[in-house]
C-alpha cells in the first residue's frame, strides 16, 4: 500500500521509478551488524527500507547482515534480528544475505584495485598513519610505502591473507588523495590484519575488510538501487561512489542519507545497551524499560503502533529528538482498539457490603471491548466482600473528589450504586483498613430502574474470586538526556532508581487466572497491561505498557 507519509527519499525513489532508472525497480536493504539486538532506531530504518520496496510491485528489500567484524558478532544476534524484522511485519522474501559470504569476492576486487594501481599495502604503524593523515586544516602526507609497485603490493597482500604477518603490521589502503579536504578520501584503509575467528567463516580469514569498502560493494553485488543510511555517512558518500566505480562499476547503487531517530531519555546505542545488560543494571535485552524491540514487545508495544509511529515521523535531513510520549500516543491508540477490558485492583482496599447476602454470588455482564462489539461480554462475579482501589477512597475528600468517602455514593462498574457508611481503622496506625458500605438493589447496571446517577464509577474485584497478581510499573530509565551528560561522567549514574516499581498484592478478576504471555488488556481506569512471560497459572504477572492517558495531559 502507499499510505506512508511523504518523505524526500520516497520522492527520489518514485522519480527514479518513473524515469525508468534501474529498469524502474527499487531494491533496498536493511543492513544490521549482528552485534546486538535491534532498537526503535533500527525500526525506523526497517520501516523506511521495507516500506519503499513494498510500494513497488516488483520491489524488494534485502535483509543483509553486515558481518565483517569478527570480534563482536554472533549467531544469536542474527536469529534475534530476523525474529524482530518479522515481528515488525516485514518479509525479505528469501533475500537473506551475509556480507561475510562476499569475503572472497571482496578480496578479488581488492586485487583488482591493486593491479589498477589504486590500492597499496602500507606498513606504517597505526600512530604513524595517524600523524601522516593531517588535520581538517592541514593536508596529509604520503606514506613512504605509497609508491610500492603493483607486483610488490599483490605479493604483500597475498602474504597478509596467508597469515604471514601479525595484527597491525600492514594494511591495504586505497590510493586516492592525501590532500583531499574530505578526510575519508585520504587513502582510507580497506583491509586490516586480524587473527580472529569469525562466527560464520571461522578461521578462513585473518584479514577483514573495512566498513567503507565492504558496504558499497555488498550493495553493488546485490544490485541495490537505493542504499539508505544515516546522516553520519554523508561525508563517506564520495568514498562509497569511488569504491563502486573502481571495483564493481557494473552497478551504481545510490547512497541517500537521512536523520537518525533519537528519542528523548532513551538509551539507543548498542554499546550502552550492552553495558546495561552486562552490568546487570537491567534484566536483559528484553527488559521492558529498554527501547529494544524485544523490550518493547515484552512491555506490550505492538508492531502496528511502532510502524504507524515511524510513518508519522516521515524522513528528515536534520537530526531531531522525538519525545517518548509521541510513541506512547500511538501505542495507546492501537491498544484502545484491540485490548480486552478487565478489572484489576493494584492497591486493594477491602469493602464489605452490609446489606448484601453473605452466601450469594452474582454473575454480572461486563463488556469486553466497547471499541469492538464483536468481542461480546463476559461474566464477572460479585459478592458481599470486594476490593476497590485505595486511591478511590478519601476520608476527608477535597471539593473536586467525587469518588468514595464517608456518606458518599459511587457506582461499581457493571454492578450497583454503593454508599460508604463507615471506615474501619487500624487502632495503632490510624490507617483505614476496610470500608463498610450498603448497596441499592434497585440500581443494578443495565436494569430498567438503574437510572439514578452518581458522579463516579469505580472498578472492583470480588474478594472470594479475585486472583493475586504481580504488576510491574515502568518509569523512564534515565533521569536526564544522555546528550547532557559530559563524556567523562559515568552515564549510568543517571539511571532512575524508580524506573521499576513492583506491586505484588494486586488482585485481578478471575478471567485473568491463566494468561498467555503477550496477551494485552486494558485494566479499566488504569492503563494498558501485557501478560509477562514470568506468569504462571494462578499467579499472573503484568507489565504496564502505558497509562491510559498521557500523564502530562491530565
Ligand atoms: P548503534 O549506533 O546502536 O550501534 P548501528 O547504526 O551501528 O547502531 P547497525 O546494525 O549498523 O547499527 O544498524 C543497521 C541499520 O539501522 C543501519 O542502516 C543504520 O543506519 C540504521 N539505524 C541504526 N540506528 C538508527 C537510528 N537511531 N535511526 C535510524 N536508523 C538507524
Ligand atoms: Mg552500523
Ligand atoms: Mg554501531
Oligomer: single chain
CATH architecture of the domain at 343-465: Beta Barrel
Secondary-structure content class: alpha/beta
The percentage helix is: 10-25%
User: Which cofactor or ligand species appear?
Assistant: adenosine-5'-triphosphate, magnesium ion
Q: So how many helices?
A: 12
Number of strands: 27
Radius of gyration: 31 Å
CATH fold type of the domain at 343-465? Ribosomal Protein L25, Chain P
CATH superfamily of the domain at 343-465: Ribosomal Protein L25, Chain P
What CATH first level of the domain at 343-465 would be assigned?
Mainly Beta
What can be said about the biggest beta sheet?
7 strands, mixed
Keywords: Aminoacyl-tRNA synthetase, ATP-binding, Cytoplasm, Ligase, Nucleotide-binding, Protein biosynthesis
Subcellular location: Cytoplasm
Protein name: Glutamine--tRNA ligase
Binding site for L-glutamine: 66, 211
Description:
With 554 residues, the protein is of the alpha/beta class. The chain has a domain of 123 residues: Ribosomal Protein L25, Chain P (Beta Barrel). The chain is built from 12 helices and 27 strands. The strands form 7 sheets. Strands 12-25-26-27-23-24-13 form a 7-stranded mixed beta sheet, covered by helices on one side. Strands 21-18-19-20-14-17-22 form a 7-stranded mixed beta sheet, with no helix packed on it. Strand 19 and strand 20 form a beta hairpin. Helix 2 crosses helix 11. It is elongated and about 100 Å long. The relative contact order is 0.10. The model has no long low-confidence stretch (mean pLDDT 95). Bound molecules: adenosine-5'-triphosphate (ATP) and magnesium ion (2 copies). Adenosine-5'-triphosphate binds next to helix 2 and strand 8.
Amino acid at each position: 500500500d502507499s499510505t506512508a507519509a511523504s518523505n524526500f527519499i520516497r520522492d527520489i525513489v518514485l522519480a527514479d521509478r518513473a524515469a525508468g532508472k534501474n529498469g524502474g525497480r527499487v531494491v533496498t536493504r536493511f543492513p544490521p551488524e549482528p552485534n546486538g539486538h535491534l532498537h526503535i532506531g533500527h525500526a525506523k530504518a526497517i520501516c523506511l527500507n521495507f516500506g519503499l520496496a513494498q510500494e513497488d510491485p516488483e520491489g524488494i528489500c534485502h535483509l543483509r547482515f553486515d558481518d565483517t567484524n569478527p570480534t563482536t558478532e554472533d549467531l544469536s544476534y542474527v536469529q534475534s534480528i530476523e525474529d524482530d524484522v518479522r515481528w515488525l511485519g516485514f518479509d525479505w522474501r528469501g533475500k537473506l544475505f551475509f556480507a561475510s559470504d562476499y569475503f572472497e569476492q571482496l578480496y578479488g576486487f581488492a586485487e583488482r584495485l591493486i593491479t589498477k594501481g589504486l590500492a597499496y599495502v602500507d606498513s606504517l604503524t597505526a600512530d604513524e598513519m595517524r600523524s601522516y593523515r593531517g588535520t581538517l586544516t592541514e593536508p596529509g602526507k604520503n606514506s613512504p610505502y605509497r609508491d610500492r609497485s603493483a607486483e610488490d603490493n599483490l605479493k604483500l597482500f597475498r602474504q597478509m591473507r596467508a597469515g604471514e604477518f601479525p595484527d597491525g603490521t600492514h594494511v591495504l589502503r586505497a590510493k586516492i588523495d592525501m590532500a583531499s579536504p574530505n578526510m575519508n578520501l585520504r587513502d582510507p584503509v580497506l583491509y586490516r590484519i586480524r587473527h580472529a575467528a569469525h562466527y560464520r567463516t571461522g578461521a578462513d580469514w585473518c584479514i577483514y575488510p573495512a566498513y567503507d569498502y565492504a558496504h558499497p560493494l555488498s550493495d553493488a553485488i546485490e544490485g541495490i538501487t537505493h542504499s539508505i543510511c544515516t546522516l553520519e555517512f554523508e561525508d563517506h558518500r564520495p568514498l562509497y561512489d569511488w569504491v563502486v566505480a573502481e571495483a564493481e562499476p557494473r552497478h551504481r547503487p545510490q547512497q541517500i542519507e537521512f536523520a537518525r531517530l533519537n528519542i528523548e531519555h532513551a538509551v539507543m546505542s548498542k554499546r550502552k545497551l550492552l553495558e546495561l545488560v552486562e552490568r546487570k543494571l537491567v534484566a536483559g535485552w528484553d527488559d521492558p524499560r529498554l527501547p529494544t524491540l524485544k523490550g518493547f514487545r515484552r512491555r506490550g508495544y505492538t508492531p502496528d503502533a511502532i510502524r504507524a509511529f515511524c510513518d508519522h515521523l516521515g524522513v528528515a535531513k536534520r537530526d531531531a529528538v522525538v519525545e517518548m510520549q509521541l510513541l506512547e500516543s500511538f501505542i495507546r491508540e492501537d491498544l484502545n482498539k484491540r485490548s480486552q477490558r478487565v478489572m484489576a485492583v493494584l492497591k486493594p482496599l477491602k469493602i464489605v457490603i452490609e446489606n448484601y447476602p453473605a452466601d450469594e454470588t452474582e454473575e454480572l455482564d461486563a463488556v469486553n471491548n466497547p471499541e469492538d462489539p464483536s468481542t461480546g461480554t463476559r461474566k464477572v462475579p460479585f459478592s458481599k466482600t470486594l476490593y476497590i482501589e485505595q486511591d478511590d477512597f478519601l476520608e476527608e475528600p477535597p471539593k473536586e473528589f467525587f469518588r468514595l468517602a464517608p456518606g458518599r455514593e459511587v457506582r461499581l462498574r457493571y454492578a450497583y450504586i454503593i454508599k460508604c457508611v463507615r471506615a474501619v481503622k487500624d487502632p495503632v496506625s490510624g490507617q483505614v483498613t476496610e470500608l463498610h458500605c450498603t448497596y441499592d438493589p434497585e440500581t443494578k447496571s443495565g436494569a430498567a430502574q438503574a437510572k439514578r446517577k452518581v458522579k463516579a464509577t469505580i472498578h472492583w474485584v470480588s474478594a472470594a474470586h479475585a486472583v493475586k497478581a504481580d504488576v510491574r510499573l515502568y518509569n523512564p530509565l534515565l533521569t536526564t538526556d544522555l546528550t547532557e551528560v559530559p563524556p567523562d561522567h559515568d552515564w549510568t549514574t543517571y539511571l532512575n532508581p524508580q524506573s521499576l516499581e513492583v506491586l505484588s498484592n494486586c488482585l485481578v478478576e478471575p478471567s485473568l487466572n491463566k494468561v498467555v504471555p503477550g496477551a494485552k488488556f486494558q485494566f479499566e481506569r488504569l492503563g494498558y497491561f501485557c501478560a509477562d512471560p514470568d506468569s504462571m497459572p494462578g499467579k499472573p504477572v503484568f507489565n504496564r505498557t502505558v497509562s491510559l492517558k498521557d500523564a502530562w495531559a491530565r
